[in-house]
Amino acid sequence: MAIVTCPNCGTKNRVDESRASDQKPICGKCKRELPDFSASSEPIVVTDQNFAATLNSAGDRPLLVDCWAAWCGPCRMLAPIVEEIAAESNGRYVIAKLNTDENPQTAAKFNISAIPTMLIFKNGKKVDEIVGLQSKPAIMQKLNSVS
Q: Sign of torsion, CA 135 136 139 144?
C-alpha cells in the first residue's frame, strides 16, 4: 500500500494500488480525490496551501518545481520542456509548477528572485536549484544526479 498525502488537507491516506487502477482514491478526511503521484503525465500545480503536502507525497522521488509567472517570456519557453519531462517521467520524478505571482509565500520561503527558477527536492529537502532558461538535457542531468 502506498501512502498518499492529500494536497487539500494534508491527511496521509493509505492507497491500495491494485484498487486505485479501477477506482479513483479519495481522502478519508476531506473526501476530495487524491492525485496519482506514481505516474503523473503532466506537471502538478502547487500552491502556498498544498506545497508541503506535495513535498511529502513525493516521498523519496526527486521533485522538480518550476517557479514561473504568466508574464515571463522565458517561463513560457520552458513550459513545454517541463511538460515533456513530466510526460516521460513514468513516476520516476514528480514534476510540479508554482506560479510565483499567485503564491508569494512559497516563493519568498525559497528566495525566488529570478524566474524561471527550478527547485529540486529529495526526501523533503531542497538539494539543487536551476535558474534561467535551460535545455532539457541540462535539466535531466540535474534530476538524474539526485535520483
A: negative
